[in-house]
Amino acid sequence: MIDFKNKGFFKLKQADDYAERVVDLLVDGEQIIASFKSMRDGVVFTNRRVISVNVQGITGSKKDFTSLPYKSIVAYSIETAGTLDLDAELELYFSAVGMVKFEFKGEVDMIAISRHISQAIL
Which CDD domains does the protein's record reference (predicted)? Predict the structure, then answer.
């Protein structure tokens, strides 16, 4: 599992094509909502969970996939981008894992992500 507390790779930018990396992991009825990537690593939001991808090794052929189901979220926090600070943040608090933080750069509709998470957990 990815060590979210000591990882600095989650400065993410929207990348719709990154979702292709997790297509084989999806279950019946699961749909991709949005996908983001940093240099090699990324995160994909589906209608049921967040899938974090940690690409490992020199060649990048080894990958660690961490599935974070929305049903395990006990609280969350969003920070939208501002005029001077263009980064946005999402903090998810999972019952078994603890806090998972994702940082986004560029234009990200954090309100839409928040709405989707709220719909899944409330």
Answer: PH-like_bacteria
